[in-house]
Amino acid sequence: MVNVAFLAPLGTYTHQAALQQFPEDKHTTFTPVDSISKCFQELMTNKELDFAVVPLENSTNGQVVFTYDILRDLMNNSDTYQENEAVPMLEIVAEQYVSIDLCLIASKPLNLNSLTKETKLEIHSHPQVWGQAANYLKLLEQKVSALHKIDASSTSAAVRLCCEMEGEEQGGVISLAVGSSIAAKAHNGFVLDSRINDKKGNTTRFLILKRRNSQGPPLEARPFSPLANDQMVSILTFVVKQDSPGSLVDVLNVLKEHRINMCSITSRPYHFPKDDRIQLTPENEEGRWRKWQYIFFVEVTHDNRLDWAPVLKGIRSNSMRFCFWGTLHRNGRYYDIT
Ligand SMILES: O=C(O)C(=O)C[C@]1(C(=O)O)C=C[C@@H](O)C=C1
C-alpha cells in the first residue's frame, strides 16, 4: 500500500501531479492536506504517509516561495548534522511536470459580456496564480468597477469556496475563481473561460518527497516519465562563508572539477538558526545576525554512475552549511517545449 499526501482538496494541480506519479489503483491512497507546509509536516510526523507531493516552480512566474522556504527551514532546523552537512528528515525522490491551463470558474453560468462598469468582482485563487494570468485579469478589471483578488490555500479550495457561495455574495459582488477544469467539475462549477494563462505552455514543476531511510514502499517508475538515457538530477542547498571573496565560486568550482553540469541556481533570504548545531568561525559568528544573507539552491545533472563522496567532501570544506536533498530521474517532460 502507498499513501500519498497532496495539497487539498481534490482537483488541485498538486493532485494532478500526484496522479501522474502514482497509479490510481486499490494499492494507492491519496490523502488531501490543507496547505503546502502541512504536506511537509504530515509526512514527517504521520508514519502512515509514504510520500508527499509539493509544487516547486512555475515556468511563468518562477519559485513557489512557500516550498523553497520550507526546504531552507528544514535544513536549518535539522536534528541531524554530520559536521556542517544537515541531514533533514525528508529527501526528494522524483519530479513531475503539470500543464497549468487556468480557467475562470463560477458557481452558475454567466455571460462575461454582461459585465458592466456597475459590476464588482471578487476573484479567488492560490497566490501563485496571480502572476500566471496577470494580463487576463487586468483586461477583466477594465470591464468592471472593481476587481478584488482573494488568496486561497489552493486553486481547488478557491473553486469550492466560490461554488459554495452560489451567487449569494453581499452587495452585488460576483464571486469567481481561477483553477482547473477538473476542479470546476469536482465542485459543480461552470467554466466561463479557459486557457486564461498569459503564457501558452504554462507548466508547474512538482517534487515528490519521502522520509529518509524509511522502510516504506519503493517509488515505482511510471512508464514514459523518466528520460530514456537515465539522466539524473541532484538537488543541493548551501550557505557560503561570509565576506570571503570567491566563496560562491569556490563551491561551484567543486562541481566544475568533477565535470558536473549545474542546470539551475537560485537563492532565498537566509537567517542563521537561533540554536545553531554547528560551530561557526569567529568571522562568521560576527555576521550571524546580519540581514541580507542568502541560501543557494542548486540543481545538477549527471549520469547514474557519479560517485558523490568526493564531491560532497569538496562542498563540505567550501561551504558554511549544506544539505544534499537527493538524486532523482530527470522526468522526460522537462524537455517539453509546448
Ligand atoms: O493550488 C493548486 O492547485 C496547487 O496545486 C498549488 C499551485 C502552486 O502552488 O504553484 C500549483 C500549480 C499552480 O501553479 C498554482 C498553484
TrEMBL record:
Q: Record's InterPro entries?
A: ACT-like_dom_sf, ACT_dom, Preph_deHydtase
A Pfam family for this UniProt protein? PDT
Q: What Gene Ontology molecular-function terms does this entry list?
A: prephenate dehydratase activity
Q: Which CDD domains does the record associate with it? A: ACT_CM-PDT, PBP2_PDT_like
All copies of domain ACT, residue ranges? 236-308
State a GO cellular component annotated for this protein.
cytoplasm
- Set out the biological process GO terms recorded for this chain's protein: L-phenylalanine biosynthetic process
UniProt pathway annotation: Amino-acid biosynthesis
UniProt cross-references to Gene3D superfamilies, sorted A to Z = 3.30.70.260, Periplasmic binding protein-like II (3.40.190.10)
Q: Which UniProt keywords apply?
A: Amino-acid biosynthesis, Aromatic amino acid biosynthesis, Lyase, Phenylalanine biosynthesis
Ranges for domain Prephenate dehydratase come to 3-211
Look up the signal peptide feature and give its range: none
- Name of the molecule in the record: LADA_0G02168g1_1
